[in-house]
Amino acid sequence: MPPDTSPVFSHNFATEFPELSIPYSPDSGPNPELVLFNEELGKELGIPADLDVLLGQRADIKEHAVAQGYAGHQFGQFVPRLGDGRAVLLGEVAGKDIHLKGSGPTPFARGGDGRATLPSMLREYLIAEALHTLGIPTTRALAVIKTGKTVLRQQSEEGAILVRVAASHLRVGSFQYARLHGLELTKQLADFGMRRHDPDCSDYAQWLSRIMKRQAATVATWMRVGFVHGVMNTDNTTISGESIDFGPCAFTATYDPKAVFSSIDHHGRYAFGQQPHILAWNLARLAETLLPLFDPDEDKALGIAQELMAHYPQIWRDAWLESMKAPLGLSRYPTEEVEGIIDAHHELLLGQPIISSGRKLAEGEGLSREWTKLWQELDPDMAEVKNNNPSVLPANHVIDSALSDVGEAKRLLGALKDPYSPHPEISMEAPKNFHYVTYCGT
After folding, report:
1. FRET pair for 133, CA 20 to 30 Å: which of 80, 225, 297, 338?
2. Is 235 an annotated catalytic residue?
3. Is 171 annotated as contributing to ligand binding?
4. Catalytic pick among 97, 235, 256, 405
5. Is 69 annotated in some ligand binding site?
6. pTM of this prediction?
């Protein structure tokens, strides 16, 4: 008899936090069919292309599957009970969360049908893997599976489930939810988060500082490639620093701080240029939940939090400068020696096409003659420049055309996994009059 190679799932979150989760058996649909499977990631995790495993139908997985609870500020308004309305945590494998999206309405569904469409899950898969290849911290996509159900949105669509992999699904909103249940549970969750992400850390204030730096580094890389998340609510800001939930996201073709694509972001709260500021706001909400853990004295705790948040502008600037060194071929320089040239490049980049500006750099040409002269005097590493300025991104018009056909999605995925090579078959210039709007349901 061959050895059993089935992956072993642990269920640490479900076991430790019954107050923050609700048992839920995922619905695989009447006729599940594997559409995309991430062979590389599956091999890394030891998870095969087995539908019973991927969909949580194996008895030992199904028994412990849970929908996670969390709260959140949505467009600045606090909602005390959100949670996984159409998602379920199957458990942990190799230290990673295995999570389904679109597997049916959980008790957190708030009236939704709990389903997802095939185009929307293909979109999440493509964007997650594109971000990963670009070196941006992100949740990963393990599989997309058609369910055999019809899902009604603006029209009838094929239903699908995304199998998502994450360092964890702890969010700022997780701590907001725990805090509503009391300080002891908040402390328990913070200790769990430290064990999971920062096992060498035992100081809560230091831990918040680490989270701030992780998240700043992530958002800085978003800004470098024109990524607009679209819905930076506190429940979409992770403790791990990974990017998560790509329904209303988009890529801005030009470096436009006012770029907004979400149909519900009427006032530009989550506009491209607002993302660093919204991150600070979200991190301040996290600090509020952790205040009693900083010090039992309320005034001292508040002072610690205020001091930590006062460091954010410098944390952000350091992260932004660091993210821009490699695209300019300047990684070998101390940051303080090149911040002037980076700042000047940023000023020139405003309003310019992101892709073509980056590819010009790869050809040794900046956005002005004067800047190019100063840059070339620094003898930039041109191999580094070429390997950090993509020629292809999952831009709005590019990804939109690939979602109606799985074959097209696979072809685009191949290009997105090789973003620094030329791809003449993909036009990064949007058609005239192309106006892109994203929806949470997409």
Report:
1. 338
2. yes
3. yes
4. 235
5. no
6. 0.95
